[in-house]
Design goal:
It is built from 20 helices and 26 strands. The chain is α+β, with helices and mostly antiparallel strands. The strands form six sheets. An eight-stranded mixed β-sheet has the order 7-6-10-2-1-14-17-16. A hairpin with a 2-residue loop joins β6 and β7. The N terminus is likely disordered.
Length: about 675
């Protein structure tokens, strides 16, 4: 008995297995079937009513039944509406637009209207709350003008009902166009699909002054519904506002006024320059054999070049060195960098400055020396921390030198600022008068920035070429050619802005814009002038430069009844910083080449990897100036309207349109 029952106990749990499994599967199936399906966000119904006023304005009421799932639509939706179009002949055409009301499920809903390229965006909703899921009804009511087309044999409303820019599909679209009372709708057309499509998946009917349209197929994202309704002429009269909006820009404002504005700007700048910016006429230039008293090489460089550059710092360092306040130690030379130097580039060597104990220099020299070293005895351009220190020192020297400028230079900033404000006023007024769109304003801004940068490149290119030809030096001439090629290449990119401006406004406007900003750039550069004291100092510096230049020096010997200083190492070192400041160090060194070679010249203020006697004074001077200038430059950077009829209609055509999405 026990033996018989034991196997039954062992297999007993298997008896109800099949019915249990079937029951579990049934329950699971019921649960899965009972779960709600994951719905997509879509426009269930796009219902639009367009009411045409006798003045030609349209009042549009759009009822959007949207299934909200909290994906793309979280806080609300946005509706884009174009306000700038292109007519068949390519002219710009603008319409009026004003939002009248926005509701969500029958209640007022917050919204904001912002300008966008070619139109506006209505953003509906609030960041403070989310839209409940389910089917929601957004109602947008707005007024738009300039939408009625007036043709020889009929007038019409050619209207893009939904727009072709929606992120969501539209299951069904309805549209009703209501003409003024007593005006009969004569003909109608309907287009569906993506922009440019002539498909007509829908139907329409005409009933008195109303035209009814509805789609018969789903519109995918990017597809839309466009309708056209024709009616007899004479019933809709354009309003004064519509006539103003649709009036083409004046040819005078587009083609003549820009050049008048440019001419007025030039007249102002010429008058301002003659009154404030024209330099005082210099006196006769006589050779000077001594630097002007009380003036540092850095200030001389700043006055001659009208800007503070690395040459001013190089001259200041060598001036301190030859006066015995520091030693310039060249750790690694840049003599092998032939190609970059041939192209006019300064090649950075590796340098260390070592302070020499002794009497401190005075004035700018004492300031510069103290700023360089402080309580230290060494500054190494190869260390990042010392580079940061040198950047600060350079800026301090620049500020100190610029602090002397009011005695010698007038910048006349107010005159330049007045000219720039006049430019903005004149051309800004013309842009407003021509009702330029966002695209037009952007293209004008692009063109203005391009003009300024192109003018900068061309100005520096021609300045370098002029310097190279005048001094018969290869480096500045080569630099000028490189800059000129860059400027020409850059000019081609500026054609984009010119084409955009010409398309939006006119070629004349584009040319005038370029001219205005070039005029601003050039006159701002030359508006600063010298004071009587500055003119006197510049004449003295020109006289010193006359002596430092080899060619002029030979002429002085032949024709001037003066006694020139002796060519000694002391004379070479004394005026070397000034030759660097005045950009004639190569000529100055060449003159002393043979004299210093005979004496086996090796400067006490320099310690490096090459011998001045073996390499030649002119070569070493040029290489040292270039290498030290490159190192200074590297260390100075701060760290770290067509008709819908006649075969030309399509989806996306006509007024209205746009699209939308969720946010």
């Amino acid at each position: 008995m026990n033996l018989f029952r034991r196997p039954r106990q062992r297999h007993c749990p298997l008896i109800p297995a099949a019915p249990l499994l079937a029951g579990l599967l049934l329950i699971l199936t019921l649960v899965v079937v009972g779960l709600p399906a994951s719905a997509a966000e879509e426009i269930v119904l796009f219902d639009s009513t367009v009411t045409v006023d006798e003045s030609g304005s349209l009042v549009v009421e759009e009822n959007l039944h949207i299934n909200v799932e909290g994906r793309s639509i979280r806080h609300g939706i946005f509706r884009d509406f174009p306000t700038t179009y292109r007519t068949v002949d390519g002219k710009r055409y603008r319409v009026g637009f004003k939002v009248l009301a926005v509701t969500l499920d029958g209640r007022k809903e917050p919204y904001e209207v912002t300008d966008r390229s070619g139109g506006v965006r209505i953003r509906i909703g609030s960041t403070d709350r989310y839209v409940p899921t389910g089917t929601r009804v957004y109602r947008i009511t707005y007024r738009t003008t300039g939408q009625v087309g007036f043709f020889e044999d009929h007038d019409e409303v050619y209207w893009n009902v939904t727009g072709n820019g929606w992120q969501f599909p539209i299951n069904r679209a309805l549209a009703r166009v209501i003409l003024p009372e007593g005006v009969e709708a004569r003909k109608a057309l309907l287009f569906t699909g993506p922009e440019g499509s002539t498909a007509s998946r829908g139907r329409w009917s005409l009933e008195g002054n109303e035209a009814l349209f509805q789609t018969t197929a789903r519109l995918d994202a990017g597809e839309g519904l466009t309708v056209a309704v024709a009616f007899d002429k004479g019933h809709v009269i354009p309003s004064a506002e519509q006539l103003r909006l649709n009036r083409p820009p004046s040819p005078f404002l587009l083609n003549i006024a820009p050049f008048l504005a440019l001419a007025l700007l030039v007249v102002y700048y010429v008058a301002a320059w003659r009154r404030y910016g024209k330099d005082l006429q210099g006196g006769p230039i006589f050779a000077r054999f001594e630097p002007p008293p009380g003036i540092s090489p850095a200030l001389a460089s700043r006055l001659m070049h009208r800007r503070f550059n690395d040459g001013a710092v190089t001259a200041s360092l060598i001036d301190l060195a030859v006066k015995g306040h520091l030693i310039i130690e060249e750790i690694e030379s840049a003599l092998g960098s032939v190609l970059p130097k041939a192209l006019g580039r300064k090649v950075a060597g590796k340098f260390r400055l070592r302070k020499i104990k002794g009497d401190a220099a005075g004035g700018d020299e004492r300031f510069f020396l103290s700023a360089l070293f402080g309580s230290r005895d060494e500054l190494d351009f190869t260390r990042d921390s010392d580079k940061e220190t040198f950047h600060t020192v350079r800026e301090s020297l620049k500020d100190r030198v610029n602090g002397h400028l009011p005695d010698y230079l007038r910048r006349n900033i107010l005159s330049s600022l007045a000219g720039f404000v006049l430019s903005l006023t004149l051309f800004g007024g013309l842009l407003l008068a021509n009702r330029a769109s966002f695209d037009g304003l952007f293209s004008v801004l692009w063109l203005a920035l391009w003009s300024l940068f192109a003018a900068f490149l061309f100005t520096n290119a021609f300045a370098s070429l002029k310097k190279g030809l005048r001094l018969k030096r290869f480096k500045p001439a080569m630099k000028g050619l490189v800059l000129l090629v860059m400027a020409l290449l850059f000019a081609f990119s500026g054609l984009i802005g010119a084409v955009l401006s010409a398309e939006e406004l006119s070629p004349a406007f584009a040319v005038a814009i370029v001219g205005a900003f070039v005029v601003n750039y050039l006159f701002i550069r030359i508006m600063g002038n010298v004071t009587p004291k500055g003119r006197e100092l510049l004449d003295e510096l020109e006289g010193l430069k006359l002596y430092l230049s080899v060619a002029e020096k030979e002429r002085i010997r032949r024709f001037a009844d003066v006694t020139l200083p002796s060519d000694t190492p002391e004379q070479f070192e004394k005026l070397l910083p000034w030759a660097i400041a005045l950009d004639v160090e190569k000529e100055w060194a060449q003159h002393f080449e043979s004299v210093l070679a005979e004496r086996g010249y090796e400067p006490a203020w320099y310690a490096g990897t090459a011998s001045w006697h073996a390499a030649g004074v002119a070569s070493m001077t040029s290489n040292l100036t270039s290498s030290l200038g490159g190192a200074i430059g590297a260390a100075s950077s701060a760290p770290g309207s067509s008709s819908g009829f006649g075969g030309g209609g399509s989806s996306g055509g006509g007024g209205g349109g746009g699209g939308g999405g969720g946010w």
